[in-house]
Amino acid sequence: MTTNEPESVVIIGGGPAGLTAAWELVKDGSNAYDVTLLEESEEFGGIARTVKHDGNRMDIGGHRFFSKDERIMDWWQETLPLQGAPSYDDKKLGRDTHDLEPGGPDPEIEDKVMLKRHRVSRIYWNKHFLDYPISLSLDTLKAMGPKITMKAGFSYLKSMVHKLPEDNLENFYINRFGRVLYSMFFEGYTEKLWGRHPSVISADWGSQRVKGLSISEVLKNAVQKLMPKQRDNSEVETSLIEEFWYPKLGPGQLWETVKDNCEARGVKVKTDAKVVGVNRGADGRIASVLVRHSDGTQETLEADQFISSMPVKDLVEAMDTEQQPVPSDMRHIAEGLPYRDFVTVGLLVKHLKLKNTTDIPTLGNPPIVPDCWIYVQDPGYKVGRLQIFNNWSPYLVKDVDDTVWIGLEYFCEEGDEFWNMSDEDATKFAIHELTRMGVIAGPDDVLDSHRERVKKAYPAYFDTYDQMPELVEYLDSFGNLYCVGRNGQHRYNNMDHSMATSMEAVDNIRTHKTSKNNVWSVNTDKSYHESK
C-alpha cells in the first residue's frame, strides 16, 4: 500500500456494530478507506432488524433507542431526525407534544423519522401484573400480601448487612434485592432465559445488564419522581429510564438507512456472503477472508484491516485450518462458548382480554394496555416476555385501531424441541399460553401469526466464558483484527455498546493505536453505562 492509496478494510457482519464501523470509516467523505461489508443474510440490523409480515412489522427483542453516550444519541439523530410534529397516536390520544423537535419531520408525512416514546413495562407474576423493574408500589405489596412483604423486607435488610461474594449471578441478585425477592422474581426467570441456574452463571452478566439497580435505587427513583424538579435521563439508572426514541418503522429502518448511506459513500456491501475462512500472512497478521455464497461459489478478499462482528466462536473456527491450525487451548475456549437462541411468535389478535387499569390513554377499541413489554416471571409459562407492537410505534401495525400485534419471546437452544417445532405447533403453543394467562380469550381471537427464529441471539456467561481473557489476548495478537459488537466480543451488549465498540475500533485504525483495550473495555466499566 502506498500513501496515496486508500487503506482497505473488510467488515464482517451487517448488524449495528458492522454498519456503525462502515459509516464511521466513510462518513467524512475523504475516501481514505476502501470498505467492503459482508453480510451472511439478505437483511441488515442483526437482531435489531425489523421483520415484515403481511403489512405488520416485528421488532426482534425490543430495541429502545437510548444511551448515556452522547456520541450515540447524536449518531442516531443524524441518521433519523426526531419528530417535529405529533404522530398518529399522539394526535389520537391528545398527548402533550410540547417537547417535540422544532423543525423536525412530521411522522404522518415522512417515514425517515425517530419517534419519542414513553416506556411502560410490567411483570406478570402469580396472575398479577406488577411494575417493572420491581417496585414497592401499593399494587406490588397487595399482590405479595403482608406475610410475604414482611419476609421480603427483612430479607432485604439482611442482604444490606451480610453481603455474599459476587462470584455468581445468584449472589449478585441476592445482594441487591434479598433472597426472598430474588427467589420470587429473578431465580426462575433467569433459569428460563439461560437454561442454567443463576448459581452457575457469571456475575458479569448482572453487572452489565442490571448495574446499579437495586431496591434502594428503586426507592430513590420513586421518591425523586415525586419531586417537582425535572430530572435528566442521565441521572436515572438505565433500567429505570421511562422515555426513549424509536424509528417510525422499527429498528431495522435505521440500519437499512445506514446501509444505504454507506453505499452512497462508496462502501461495497455484499449480501449472501458467509465468511468460512480467515487466512494469516507470513507476518502473522490477517491477510484475507474466504467468503462462500449460497450458490456454492467462493471468493477471497484481501485487506489491510479486518473488523469482525461474527460470533467469536465461528471466527476462531474459520481461522482453524490444516495449514494454519489454531492452538488447541484457544480452540477449546472458543468451542465452549455458549449461546442462547431465540424464537418470537407474532400473533395478530382482535382485542385483548386485559383491561387498561392505568391512567395512561391507549389506542384500540376497546383501549389496549399501555405496555411496551410484559415480563413473564411466572415459572408456570415458557414464554419469557411479551411485546405489544402497537405501543412501540402505531406504524408497525397495519390496522392499529382494530387489531393488536403481539410478540411472544421464547428462549431455547438451536435444535431443541421448541426450536424444531413446526410453525403451526409453535403458534398453537403460544396461543395456549396467552389464553391461559388471560391476555386473550382464546384461539378464535387470533387473525394471523408469524414465527421467527434467531440463532446465537444471546452470548451466555458460563462454560468456558471465564477463559475469555485468554482468547482476547490471542485474537488481539494479530494486530489488524478488531472484534466488535455483541457476538464479536461474546458480550451481552446493548445496541449502543455494540456501536461504541466499533467507534473505538475505527478510532484505533485512524490513529494507528496498537492496544485494543479501549475496544474490549466498552460496557465493562460501571461508570461508562451509568453516567454521561
CATH architecture of the largest domain: 3-Layer(bba) Sandwich
How much of the polypeptide forms β-strand, as a percent range?
15-25%
Which class do the helix and strand fractions yield?
A: alpha/beta
CATH topology of the largest domain, which one? FAD/NAD(P)-binding domain
Largest sheet: 7 strands, mixed
Q: Which runs of at least 5 residues are low in confidence (pLDDT < 50)? A: 233-240, 526-532
Helix content: 25-40%
- Oligomer category: single chain
Shape: globular
> Average pLDDT, to the nearest integer?
90
Task: Give the total of domains.
Answer: 3
Looking at CATH, the homologous superfamily of the largest domain is: FAD/NAD(P)-binding domain
Report the C-alpha radius of gyration, rounded. 24 Å
How would you write the strand order of the largest sheet?
7-6-15-16-17-14-18
* CATH class descriptor of the largest domain: Alpha Beta
Q: How many β strands by DSSP? A: 19
**End-to-end gap:** 40 Å
Query: With helices defined by DSSP (H or I, 4 residues minimum), what is the helix count?
Result: 18
Protein name: Amine oxidase:FAD dependent oxidoreductase
Organism: Bifidobacterium animalis subsp. lactis (Bifidobacterium lactis)
Domain Amine oxidase: 17-437
InterPro entries: Amino_oxidase (IPR002937), FAD/NAD-bd_sf (IPR036188)
What does this structure look like?
This protein is α/β, with parallel strands linked by helices and 532 residues long. It has 3 domains: 7-46 and 254-337 and 464-530, FAD/NAD(P)-binding domain (3-Layer(bba) Sandwich); 121-240, no CATH class; 339-459, Polyamine Oxidase, Chain A, domain 2, CATH 3.90.660. The protein is built from 18 helices and 19 strands. A hairpin with a 5-residue loop joins strand 11 (286-292) and strand 12. The longest helix has 24 residues, at 138-161. The radius of gyration is 24 Å and the shape is globular. The two termini are 40 Å apart. The relative contact order is 0.17. Mean pLDDT is 90; it is low at 233-240 and 526-532.
